[in-house]
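Cross-check.
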Amino acid sequence: MDIARPYAAVSHTLDGDVLRVLANTTQVLTGREVAALTGRRSHSGVLDALHRLTEHGLVTRVELNRAYLFTLNREHLAAPAVEILMGMGAELLRRIRDALDSWVIAPAHVSMFGSAARGDGSTGSDIDLLVIRPGDLADDNATWRTQLADLKDQIRRWTGNHAQIVELTNEEVIRLRKDERAIVAALRSDAVVLHGSEIATLLRPA
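Predicted model, tokenized:
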């Protein structure tokens, strides 16, 4: 999965970028506004995509003062599929949370960090997770190790990306925050908590 553009798995053309912009708002937008929000330089290319999507009925186009205004037609049969594609990042978070809730041995904390959390990765990016093992649990506990392996397999099947799990104990977290290593800065800046306490609480200096 392209972390920055997950919908590219189905729509890798400019149409996907245009639909992402329109799916994220209910306001009407001019072609130039859509182009600016896609981050693409080609205004004419965006306008061609908008007109093409209008022909299919997926985009509604109205003319006002010699300008065209566009919006996603949410009554279109394909609109729910568009919204699912554009919400793949949130769906991944939901699936991981559901998987964690089913664990026999609950983790002390799990959060996503790095490019997956920021939403700026690519198809080659790992899904980085910090997992804190319960303090009284042996490192080689079979059930715990199976849970971690299963989660990595699930993420691979869901996204096509590898899961990179950083597993720590509470004691290791204490040492980590004292050292202020690079991972601590990454966690503070972009971590998304999936289970357990907030990052600010977890990394609060003793």
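Residues 142 and 148 are 10 Å apart (CA to CA). The chain has two domains: 6-85, 88-202. Passed to J.P. for a second look.
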